[in-house]
Amino acid sequence: MWIIVRQSHAQDGFRIAVQHGRDMTATLSGIIPPMITPLRARDELDHAGLERLIEHLISGGVSGLFLLGTTGEGPALGARLRAELVERTCRQVNGRVPVLVCVTDTAFTESLNVARAAADAGADALVAAPPFYWPLGQPEMEHYFDALAGELPLPLVLYNMPALTKTPIPVATVRRAMDNPKIIGMKDSSGNLGYLHQILRARAGRTDWPVLVGDEETLPYAMQAGADGGVNGGANVFPRLYAKYFQAAVSKSGDLDMLHPLVIRMGDLYRNGSHASSGIKGIKCALSLLGICDDFMAEPFERFSAHERERVASLIEEQRSQVP
Amino acid sequence: MWIIVRQSHAQDGFRIAVQHGRDMTATLSGIIPPMITPLRARDELDHAGLERLIEHLISGGVSGLFLLGTTGEGPALGARLRAELVERTCRQVNGRVPVLVCVTDTAFTESLNVARAAADAGADALVAAPPFYWPLGQPEMEHYFDALAGELPLPLVLYNMPALTKTPIPVATVRRAMDNPKIIGMKDSSGNLGYLHQILRARAGRTDWPVLVGDEETLPYAMQAGADGGVNGGANVFPRLYAKYFQAAVSKSGDLDMLHPLVIRMGDLYRNGSHASSGIKGIKCALSLLGICDDFMAEPFERFSAHERERVASLIEEQRSQVP
Amino acid sequence: MWIIVRQSHAQDGFRIAVQHGRDMTATLSGIIPPMITPLRARDELDHAGLERLIEHLISGGVSGLFLLGTTGEGPALGARLRAELVERTCRQVNGRVPVLVCVTDTAFTESLNVARAAADAGADALVAAPPFYWPLGQPEMEHYFDALAGELPLPLVLYNMPALTKTPIPVATVRRAMDNPKIIGMKDSSGNLGYLHQILRARAGRTDWPVLVGDEETLPYAMQAGADGGVNGGANVFPRLYAKYFQAAVSKSGDLDMLHPLVIRMGDLYRNGSHASSGIKGIKCALSLLGICDDFMAEPFERFSAHERERVASLIEEQRSQVP
Amino acid sequence: MWIIVRQSHAQDGFRIAVQHGRDMTATLSGIIPPMITPLRARDELDHAGLERLIEHLISGGVSGLFLLGTTGEGPALGARLRAELVERTCRQVNGRVPVLVCVTDTAFTESLNVARAAADAGADALVAAPPFYWPLGQPEMEHYFDALAGELPLPLVLYNMPALTKTPIPVATVRRAMDNPKIIGMKDSSGNLGYLHQILRARAGRTDWPVLVGDEETLPYAMQAGADGGVNGGANVFPRLYAKYFQAAVSKSGDLDMLHPLVIRMGDLYRNGSHASSGIKGIKCALSLLGICDDFMAEPFERFSAHERERVASLIEEQRSQVP
User: Fold this and answer.
1) Would an 8 Å CB–CB cutoff place B297 in contact with chain A?
2) Tens digits of per-residue pLDDT, D85-112?
3) How many CB atoms lie within 10 A of CB B66?
4) What is the pLDDT of residue B121?
5) A168–chain C nearest CA distance, Å
């Protein structure tokens, strides 16, 4: 059985009410950064950096933390370190904001292991993309999410990340998941607004089934389209910018025009180098430049070299002079 | 430091001589099946089935066992079960044939965990494909294999599997790896003979650097091209067919003409259904039909249904009447 | 030498001023539908349908016509029919709106043939995507556009359509093209807002280098991002909806909130069936339902069957009740 | 109606017997080079080079000529030049070997135009890959080949080239085509031996339905698998090598062991540079080095520069010393 978690954050509307029966409701909204994992060395957390980062994010006004996702290098971290990260983060957050933990793994049992550690630590919800070694068919994916949701000790948020998992979550699979009381929402990192529009239409009228988006470049448009919030890497660096952007988007305030290009500009953090990992390296590099944490990367990646570091420094400098 | 392992199997030429210094030599050849992992339920080995399977393979004349690869559902199995499988297999094999253990994982430390379990159990070598969540650049891949080989307690065989890992191992990376004394050979599952030809040319004159191939459909051609052996899923079902095929290919005996189409025919086991997993399902289904082990699949997959089972039964029936 | 064409359409800002020297300026903006090509049979125009379609579009307030693009089935039409279409369209349009003609072809000389027919007919500009049989490298693409622009009798608009041409036009290639006086703008049909943002930043300050977008689903967002107009298939069916949408977007009027979902809804016309051609079939089907022209398709495609036709009819019916 | 063509070339078994009714039979076998198109400038044939090339090929013992395929830059050449090439080639060949003409085009009517020019010139058969701008579904492809074969004035050979046309020809579509009397065989350039095996099994017993292969690297294996011949770019350069290879493969003579690596080595001509066009450039460069014809390339490509030319020269030099 899974425990009841009930939280209310008036400021950003986050609420997960998990019950044993069918009447569970959940609302996620606002900016929930996909937190990078501060490392000092292989398999070793940067403890002080982690503390600083959590405070940086919470004081920046984020509506939650999302651990061990793509930006959090989740798939590159071992089970022990994943558990330690979740435990330390939940302890320090101490209920100030909800904590979501990504359990994506190619091995079902390892997903359950992370999930149990998350539940024990007091996390609020779990997130899972499809297993990503073999491409899946639609029936296989539906079977997988059913089985996973059934075993998890906390509610589940679907995670669509086709660029890395190979298989997008079909719209029909998402529609079906909306009827599973343990599946409480979705994060879409496809960057595909056509797909997002279909998802949003499929959940029309379900204010309790939040859809968050991951893509940095399309956040402003996704918000207009009706998405409930963002899980955007750049919010690790400038959480207040993203939080203010979210507030402005919700209230349709005039700040939008000023904030919009600043959010878009953060997308450049993802284009510093040709490799898929350059976004994560860029965020870690920026946080290191800001004195928040180390920029050590888990294998197979390495931190940026001096040349790339300079380009990140320029971007950060330029943005700092403008962000609120 | 890593221990010295020295074995000689005159029958198939397998020899790994690992030393502390540079003069290590290693020869792998013959048929080394990518053993499926017999399961009774989620996270639960089929112990009796595993014993029967190992005896089926060894008595069938295979030159080694390859555990936890793609066909072995390695990425879908948790750390505990991987260790148990390696431990039980090594104990039962008891040095009769070499045991290779695939440590491919998106997390470096989990690869090390499997590797240590393998070394403790007495396995002979390790195998690793590039981590497969993010696509890698060439420098990143070289850095990764250097770091991994440096940490592993046993020699390493490279594993090229671009269809599932996204990033092929560049020919230049393989050429460079040949100079690393801890990297003793390669398994190429690309099915791309042009790539294979380049690898074989790059290792020209290095009789101590074996190249094995995984693709069922191109094994006969790869053998002609100069490959040293096969890691072919179908050998789980009919090990003797593949072992005889290998002997005939080495000795260029007349049996080749009779055996060639039988080996090619096994490729149909991989086309029974449209999903990427149909090959593994087919092999497990065939072994279940032969009374060797259960055909339970780890998530996200399920065993074949009755309809597909019938088609596998037809193929097996047809082949049984012809294989030696 | 190429002739001077100078037109001014105050209503939508379209202006092409082509001169022999370097001081050419050009402005394209507004809705320029990628006109479908009305056919009665293979290699046979639906003349009456073409006339009705052109009047439907011009009276609907479009800012130009774009012939022989992807939606216009350009690559599926022979040289003779392409020339006939251009000639008839220009004659009937008679300068009321600018006519752009797509000359994309895998054969350079065939692009020139279409271009000459377009210049002879009085078209205003040409459009070209990279040749699409072989993938191109960046130097090859730059060489190609330089050579093509140099030979064309009219100014050239670049056409980015990576989903079908295989090779996206790199941002650096576009930036370089801005210095070529014969290349006067761009149509981006990638649907990738990250790419669009980079292009828009690269042309910052160049009000004479218009960027139009093709993707139906992202038009509203692209307009906000700074794009100058849309080349959207749905505008064949409801030109007034798109024209009004454009005006509202430019003037930031309150109509946007009402029009936005109607434009987004048109994206469903592209998802009626799984094949890449379903968008074109859908538009032709809708125009046939509206009594404007035949829905005959050039090989390799066939018109929608009754079942799909009904679904298009529903969409059209629903939209008709709401569009202005 | 289409004319009767009946030819018999005892030496290599080529025979096309086209009749008005159902009893047409056709046999293609041996080496049929995908002839490059010698150009002097854009849209201008190198007449003297073409003559020399044709004599070089015929005297080298090829079993036919294949014009305007991928290697022949077909899609990059305009209709006029295609017709001129076919006309000149047929005139000079004068029945000494069969001439096959590729009519692949995105426009059906342009395919018919090339086909008529080919029939008028006395060509023996036509070849067509699926149109390649839009990806096709299977029913669309079947409809297309049915319609095309129905209109063509000569028998049709299917051409599978998925790397460039996007859509592979499904095995079921090929099986269906075998029942169409106007479709007399297939050229498979997929390089995928698993696919080839399925095709060969599907045509089991049909000695009148030849399957030729295009991939340089897998020709020797394809011949063993049962293919009837090769359409290999390298045969432009060393026709005798390929012709002898074919004879040795048919007669299973001992020459195979000597010739096999030489044929494989030619695959390097395709890896000289990273662009998809490097194979064609390499062949033209080699022919230019041999004094046979110009190496001018149609847009969007350019001939090799000095550096790449040197590498081709080395390969040619090395091979010349060894080929028969």
Assistant:
1) no
2) 999 999 999 999 999 999 999 999 999 9
3) 30
4) 98
5) 15
Q: Do A197 and C218 touch (CB under 8 A)?
A: no
Closest by CA to C14, choosing from C63, C48, C61, is C63
Q: Output helix, strand, coil percentages for chain B, rounded to the nearest 5.
A: 45, 15, 40
Q: What is the 3-state secondary structure (H, E, C) of C227-273?
A: CCEECCHHHHCCHHHHHHHHHHHHHCCCHHHHHHHHHHHHHHHHCCC
Phi first, then psi, for residue D17 (nearest 5°) are -120, 100
Strands (E) located in C47-179: 65-67, 99-102, 125-128, 156-160
Token output for C58: 């011009």
Chain centroid to Cα C206, Å, comes to: 21
For residue A110, which residues of chain B lie inside 8 Å, CB to CB? Answer: 78-79
Query: In the prediction, which pLDDT does C184 show?
Result: 96
Q: CB distance from D79 to chain C under 8 Å? A: yes
A31 vs A248: CA distance, rounded Å: 12
Interface test with C, best of D71, D106, D281 (most C CBs within 10 A): D106
Q: CA angle C84-D129-C35, nearest 5°? A: 30
**B166, B182, B187, B245: which is the annotated catalytic residue?**
B187
Q: Indicate whether C210 pLDDT > 50.
A: yes
Q: Give the residue among D12, D28, D11, D3 at the shortest CA–CA distance from D207.
A: D28
Q: Which residue of B lies nearest to D215 if distances are taken between CA atoms?
A: B194
Q: What are phi and psi of D48, to 5 degrees?
A: -65, -40
User: Per the CB < 8 Å rule, is B108 touching A42?
Assistant: yes
Residue D221 contacts B where some CB pair is shorter than 8 Å: yes
Q: Do A197 and C217 make contact, defined as CB atoms within 8 angstroms?
A: yes
Higher pLDDT: C254 or C188? It is: C188
* Residue in chain C lying closest to D76 (CA): C107
Q: Name the residue facing D197 among B192, B224, B267 (closest C-beta).
A: B267
| pLDDT (0 to 100) of residue A127 | 98
How far is residue D137 CA from its own chain's centroid?
A: 25
pLDDT digits (tens, 9 = 90+) for C119-134: 999 999 999 999 999 9
Return the percentage of chain A with pLDDT > 90, whole number. 76
- CB C275 to CB D135 under 8 A? yes
Residue (of D284, D268, D235) closest to D62 by Cα position: D235
User: Which positions in chain B touch D260 (Cβ < 8 Å)?
Assistant: 224
Q: How far is CA B148 from CA B105, B113, B127, B158, B178, in A?
A: 11, 12, 11, 11, 15
Task: Name the neighbours of D, counting chains with at least 3 Cβ pairs within 8 A.
Answer: B, C
Q: A77 and B299: CB-CB below 8 Å?
A: no
Q: Dihedral, CA atoms, C43, C47, C48, C54, nearest 10 degrees?
A: 110
Name the average pLDDT for chain A. 90
Q: Does D218 touch chain B (CB under 8 A)?
A: yes
B269 touches chain A (CB under 8 A): no
Of chain B, the end-to-end C-alpha distance in Å amounts to: 45
Tens-digit pLDDT profile for residues D189-244: 999 998 999 999 999 888 889 999 999 888 888 998 999 999 999 999 999 999 99
Catalytic residue positions of D, numbered: 159, 187
Is residue A54 within 8 A of residue A236, CB to CB? The reply is no
Distances (CA, A) of D140 to C270, D82, D128, D129: 17, 27, 15, 13
* Interval B241-273: pLDDT, tens: 999 999 998 888 888 889 988 998 888 888 776
Nearest-CA distance C233 → chain D (Å): 16
Contact status, residue D193 vs residue D221, Cβ threshold 8 Å: yes
Residue by residue, DSSP assigns A51-115 as HHHHHHHHHTT-S-EEESSTTTTGGGS-HHHHHHHHHHHHHHHTTSS-EEEE---SSHHHHHHHH
**Which pTM does this prediction carry?**
0.92
B and A touch with 3+ CB pairs <8 Å, answer yes
